[in-house]
Amino acid sequence: MTVIYEDNHIIAVNKTCSDIVQGDKTGDVPLSETIKHYLKEKYNKQGNVFCGVVHRLDRPVSGVVLFARTSKALERLNEMFRNGEICKTYWAIVKNPPPRTEESLEHYLIRNEKQNKSYACDAPKKEAKKAVLSYKIIGKSDNYTLLEINLETGRHHQIRCQLAKIGCPVKGDLKYGFARSNSNGGISLHARQVEFIHPVSKQNIIITAETPNEKLWSEFNKQIDFL
């Protein structure tokens, strides 16, 4: 975990693919608890430390995660997420290039709780939730393509499911049809950036998370820097 933004009301970290945001059945220490310990140590706080979970990233996904340091910020950030007022940008590495350079995708997702997986349909179905994202190609290597993705809705496994639906599963994502796993157990999906109006100061905040320190990500970063 690396802290990439911090003020009196908000803290943001760059999550690795092994981190979990909130406690689950694995019993592994979640980021919310790691941050509490970090704040307690840094500010020599006595008693309990507040750290509110605002949103989540799937465990195998890396990138920026926001937490609230005050109940006031938590309440307002939760409302902003519900209202779609927080702009989230993701980067995804796929092997099969998508059919178009850029496009908006609209599907209807059905979540299977037992499998912890979502299925995409082209038309509305009972209990299916509408999912919308837009992507554009921002990098290419000999074997892979880098996509930049903006979410309009926040559905379960949305990016993973929708990209798989168009034949472009995320690198390493066995659950959604990629041929083999990544060596670190994660997938090549990275929450690159969040942009929002600060819930207290009302300033525009942009928080960017560095990509994982891996050869393929580094190659794409050099390509983007050159452009």
Overview of this structure, please?
The protein is globular and about 55 Å long. It has 227 residues and is α+β, with helices and mostly antiparallel strands. The chain has helices spanning 31-42, 71-82, 158-165, 215-226; strands at 2-6, 10-15, 52-53, 62-68, 87-94, 102-112, 117-121, 129-140, 145-151, 189-197, 204-208. Strands 1, 2, 3, 4, 5, 6, 7, 8, 9, 10 and 11 form an eleven-stranded mixed beta sheet that branches. A hairpin with a 4-residue loop joins strand 8 and strand 9. Helices cover 19% and strands 34% of the residues. It has one domain (2-226): 2-Layer Sandwich (Pseudouridine synthase). The longest helix has 12 residues, at 31-42. The model has no long low-confidence stretch (mean pLDDT 94). It starts with a strand and ends with a helix. It has four helices and eleven strands, in the order E-E-H-E-E-H-E-E-E-E-E-H-E-E-H.
